[in-house]
């Protein structure tokens, strides 16, 4: 063969052909060569064609002599069994959901029937065909009728619940958005200013649904006076100015003021506010104020000239003066409601971060806060420790998963919200907080006097807690084949560095043949950190660009070769409907550069960029959408109302119902708990028992890439013409 190559081909091509011949001979297949099966495997993997993968493996002549291929085939068969079980289970659940839907509708429980319909819709292949069935059309009609009736009766929570469930049936079409926005405004206002009234509404809703009486809302925790602390006019004027000058939509002062005044008017018309503001009981005075706002609102709507800063200032001052002449509400209430109304004219991701909320906002973006280090949840209306964070004051003091926090600094936590609990437990570094803990194994209340310290949020997690230390992670999902697994929960400043540390740990321990990057339910975070992560795998070309409302490129993020550390690691990226913003940047950019296989379901579709502007001496902030981003191939993935296409679609779509996802998440959360002994649930069950079909598929695709990579390397080692 070699003499034939020398005779027939120019010298400059001979090395390539020698190399090709050795590859064709390396695995010992007959004349068809091994490159074709390997290519078949990779092509099938990128398309999620598991039937072709199985056929290719079963037809491989050297299958029995290659333990890696035999093991892969065995795992593939197991996956297909799990997939078949899921399909059978979904069929049974579909029939059960429809049966429950009909039964609920028969006794007039429309909301329960809608819940069952949503469950059934998640179990069918084509949701649009499902909506065209006559019994679903009849259910929707009855739901709309009930929602309108309960709203007129003042049962807003029931009406809101009905409209939201109807909206879920028709997603992504915003069919009921106007109704939802209107009732949400009323519920927000009542919850803030008249919590006794909201308690009544909760009781009314429970009675309508036949549910037990709910616990009352804590009235002394988050009062409107506390939430509106430091609310003032400069915050409102700054918010209006930033919106008019910076927002992506190009909205002007007039449009902002129209929605601001309309929102204030709707607030004053909300029944039940008299509890907080007795002046509203004076109907003539209240009517005079509302009539004035109506005139202002109409004038703003009819105005056609450009509204200036001075016009805005004059309009606001007149509203303040009218308030003083009539209902005399506290000025911070008028300011707050006008501001919230103006912000509702923008997109859902633009908002004012009020002084009361700034600390929590900073914690979420910086990845660091001062506290005792406990992850908490409301379980059976009790403040419950999910897990102490590793190496935190709570962890060192012996706080355990499942502990119930009964008191904080002597104050009972009954009916506290999670936000209020976080606010009370966190505080300045070096200060102390006392937690009263109820533990199942203890008769008396346990007291933990803890010193607050800096708590570092870790967004990079592994497959399971390390056996030697609970503060570390074991990143190998498949130690035998050296397949790593990294979850990123959000993108914070330390994310790229922590990701590098995880890769380095695996390289130092046993090496790394392939990696699964799990971005499911990652809501995003810092855009630049996500670009840095993409750069770890992609060494050239554009990684991301941003555009304004005219599609003009405002920023370009090219790859920097010296930041590319892992270009040759076979990669599988997992996404789902909870993957948003920065997570979509990573997934979409890697997909465009063909740097990995995407597995899961379509992502959320948040392709907008928010900038944060300080206000009121940085004691308040504004988060405002200024740009959209484009993926390397030019895709804008932002989800616009009514659009059929958005987000990042996976290369390999793997359907999981909401219940299947919930079960997998619950089990994963139990695995992640920091325990004194290594006697908790094992993550392998997610794959072995088929609890997470997306993860199981991702592992198979990673394994396929390692097999092809290993055979390629074997061929190269056998090539005597492959000189350094």
Topology:
Elements: H1 2-8, H2 11-26, H3 35-47, H4 50-59, H5 67-106, H6 110-121, H7 127-131, H8 134-152, H9 156-170, H10 177-193, H11 195-209, H12 224-227, H13 233-246, H14 253-268, H15 283-302, H16 309-325, H17 331-343, E1 351-353, H18 358-366, E2 368-371, E3 374-379, E4 382-388, H19 393-397, E5 404-408, E6 411-412, H20 418-425, E7 432-438, E8 446-451, E9 453-456, E10 460-461, E11 464-465, E12 473-474, E13 476-478, E14 483-488, H21 495-509, E15 514-518, H22 527-535, E16 542-547, E17 553-558, E18 571-575, H23 582-592, E19 597-600, E20 608-615, E21 620-630, E22 652-653, H24 658-672, H25 684-688, H26 693-717
Helix pairs in contact: 2-26, 3-4, 3-26, 4-5, 5-6, 5-26, 6-8, 6-9, 8-9, 9-10, 10-11, 13-17, 14-15, 14-17, 15-16, 22-23
Description of the structure:
The protein has 26 helices and 22 strands. With 724 residues, the protein is of the alpha+beta class. It has 5 domains: 64 residues, no CATH class; 128 residues, no CATH class; 121 residues, no CATH class; 89 residues, Roll (Pdz3 Domain), CATH 2.30.42; 190 residues, 2-enoyl-CoA Hydratase, Chain A, domain 1 (Alpha-Beta Complex), CATH 3.90.226.10. The two termini are 24 Å apart. The N terminus and C terminus are likely disordered.
């Amino acid at each position: 063969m070699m003499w034939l190559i020398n005779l027939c081909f120019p010298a400059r091509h001979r090395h390539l052909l020698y190399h090709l011949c050795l590859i064709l001979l390396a695995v010992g297949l007959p004349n068809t060569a091994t490159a074709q099966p390997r290519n078949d495997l990779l092509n099938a993997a990128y398309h999620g064609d598991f039937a072709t993968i199985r056929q290719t493996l079963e037809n491989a002549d050297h299958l029995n002599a290659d333990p890696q291929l035999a093991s892969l085939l065995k795992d593939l068969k197991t996956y297909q069994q799990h997939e078949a079980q899921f399909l059978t289970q979904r069929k049974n659940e579909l029939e059960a959901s429809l049966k429950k839907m009909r039964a609920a509708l028969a006794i007039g429980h429309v909301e329960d029937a809608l819940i069952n319909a949503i469950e059934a819709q998640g179990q069918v292949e084509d949701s649009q065909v499902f909506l065209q069935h006559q019994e679903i059309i009849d259910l929707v009609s009855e739901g709309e009728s009930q929602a309108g009736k309960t709203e007129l009766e003042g049962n807003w929570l029931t009406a809101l619940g009905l409209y939201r469930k109807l909206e879920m049936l028709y997603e992504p079409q915003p069919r009921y958005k106007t109704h939802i926005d209107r009732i949400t405004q009323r519920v927000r206002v009542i919850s803030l200013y008249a919590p006794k009234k909201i308690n009544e509404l909760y009781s009314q809703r429970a009675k309508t649904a036949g549910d037990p009486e709910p616990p009352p809302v804590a009235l002394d925790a988050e009062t409107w006076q506390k939430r509106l602390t430091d609310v003032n006019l400069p915050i409102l004027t700054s918010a209006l100015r930033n919106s008019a000058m910076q927002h992506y939509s190009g909205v002007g002062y007039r449009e902002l003021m129209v929605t601001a005044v309309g929102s204030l008017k709707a607030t004053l018309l909300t029944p039940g506010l008299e509890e907080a503001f007795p002046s509203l009981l004076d109907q003539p005075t209240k009517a005079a104020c509302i009539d004035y706002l109506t005139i202002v609102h109409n004038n703003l709507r009819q105005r056609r000239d450009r509204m200036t800063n001075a016009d805005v200032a004059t309009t606001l001052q007149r509203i303040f003066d009218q308030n003083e002449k009539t209902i005399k509400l506290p000025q911070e209430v008028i300011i707050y409601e006008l501001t919230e109304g103006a912000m509702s004219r923008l997109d859902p991701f633009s908002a004012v971060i009020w002084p009361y909320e700034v600390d929590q906002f900073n914690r979420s973006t910086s990845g660091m806060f001062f506290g005792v280090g406990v992850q908490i949840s409301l379980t059976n209306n009790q403040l419950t420790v999910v897990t102490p964070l590793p190496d935190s004051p709570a962890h060192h003091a012996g706080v355990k998963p499942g502990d119930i926090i009964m008191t904080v600094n002597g104050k009972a936590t009954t009916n506290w919200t999670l936000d209020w609990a976080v606010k009370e437990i966190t505080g300045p570094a070096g200060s102390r907080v006392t937690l009263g803990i109820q533990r199942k194994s203890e008769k008396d209340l346990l007291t933990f006097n803890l010193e607050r310290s800096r708590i570092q949020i870790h967004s990079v997690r592994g497959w399971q807690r390390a056996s030697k230390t609970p503060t570390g992670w074991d990143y190998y999902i498949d130690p035998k084949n050296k397949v790593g697994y990294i979850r990123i929960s959000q993108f914070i400043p330390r994310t790229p560095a922590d990701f590098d540390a995880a890769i380095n740990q695996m390289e130092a321990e046993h090496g790394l043949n392939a990696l699964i990057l799990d971005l499911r339910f990652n809501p995003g975070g810092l855009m630049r950190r996500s670009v840095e992560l993409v750069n770890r795998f992609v060494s050239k070309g554009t990684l991301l660009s941003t555009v304004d409302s005219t599609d003009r490129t405002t920023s370009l993020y090219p790859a920097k070769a010296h930041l590319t550390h892992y270009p040759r690691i076979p990669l599988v990226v997992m996404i789902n409907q909870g993957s948003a913003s920065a997570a979509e940047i990573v997934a979409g950019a890697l997909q465009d550069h063909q740097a990995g296989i995407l597995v899961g379901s379509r992502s959320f579709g948040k392709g907008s960029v928010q900038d944060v502007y300080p206000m009121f001496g940085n004691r308040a902030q504004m988060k405002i959408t200024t740009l959209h981003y484009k993926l390397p191939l030019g895709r804008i993935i932002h989800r616009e109302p009514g659009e059929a296409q958005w987000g990042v679609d996976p290369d390999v779509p793997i359907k999981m119902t909401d219940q299947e996802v919930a079960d997998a998440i619950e089990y994963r959360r139990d695995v992640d708990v920091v325990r004194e002994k290594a006697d908790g649930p094992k993550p392998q069950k997610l794959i072995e028992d088929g609890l997470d079909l997306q993860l199981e598929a991702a592992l198979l695709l990673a394994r396929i890439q390692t097999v092809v990579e290993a055979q390629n390397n074997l061929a190269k080692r056998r090539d005597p013409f492959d000189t350094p």
